[in-house]
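hi!! sorry for the late reply, been swamped w classes. u asked for the two structures so here they r. pasted raw, havent cleaned anything up. first the sequence of the first protein and right below it the tokens
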Amino acid sequence: MMSTDWNPLLRAEFDKPYWHALQSFVASEREQHAVYPAHADVFAALHHTPFADTKVVVLGQDPYHGPRQAHGLCFSVQRGVATPPSLANIFKELQADVGMPIPSHGNLARWAQRGVLLLNTTLTVRAAQAGSHQGKGWETFTDEVIRVANSKPFVVFVLWGAQARKKKSLIDVSRHAVVESAHPSPLSAHQGFTGSRPFSQINAALRAAGLSDIDWALD
């Protein structure tokens, strides 16, 4: 199912009762409704960013629930799809922070390939119904992904918004860096995301730990 170096680190989860119940639930949902992302993209974050290469973890919540948007990376949309409002605010902050031009598309796969794990805490959603797959077991699995990432010597964890910040309890903050603020959603960006300069904070923390910067360019 997951042909990445995350697989042996997470394999014990696949034998637990919650996992079987979760997979049955998702399969049933797919039989009756449109579910995003496509089955092949559910674990895209773990495929794009191997454990060995993970330097940054960005936590999202739900996949996007509109057609053709979600493809398994939090905040990211497929090329040719309009940039959602939260991602538009992320791009505005990227420009203000490090002078990067606003990207021409919203596909963040290049960040993922450079060591930024773009992890939603819930990995599937029913079309047009935000939050519809929350509380079904995905959070148990993604909490374990966070714990495994926490086992590395150093990672920058990026927690945007109240839901992501709840995961701070899973992180050894004495060893890792945490970049946190309000969520980039238009409803909350003005409460502390705008002007927070997360991208330069991330790279400063990586440099301080003796690791290379993330190249944030997407075009």
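now the second protein. again sequence first, tokens right under
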Amino acid sequence: MEYMSQEGYDKLVAELRELENVELPRVRDAIAEARDKGDLSENFEYHAAKREQGRLLSRIRFKQKVLAGARVIDMSKLRSDGVQLLSKVEIVNMNNNSRMSYTIVSPHEASIHEGKISIKSPIAQALLGRRVGDIVEVRVPAGVMKLRIESISLG
């Protein structure tokens, strides 16, 4: 079971619909067109389209499995007194005094460009259950980061 936001769930549903209703028919048309060209043993377009179809079907099955096990979190039942899934956390890196803001999300919603980190990441793991003012040490590839929690709100 995978907990996620309504936004993340809706985004996965939209991606799945795009794959099933746009991408897959496009690839099937490409296979049919390549098949019409004759000898399949040396038909590069046919083999490339078949590989693409396999890749798409794999992505579709993966997204279907994720959605089947997904549970949307009711934001009204969340509290902002401690760090948890869907918390927006402002932290200060005490090593260089830089401020960062992250929302802790499911691995399927993570996007560093949007400021969303996976709940399975080392930083999120270290922050879970902590409160404003707590200082945590996190082992990351670059070494050990010392972080102070400045604020917690609901994402």
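hope this helps!! also noticed smth abt the second:
Residues 70 and 109 are 12 Å apart (CA to CA).
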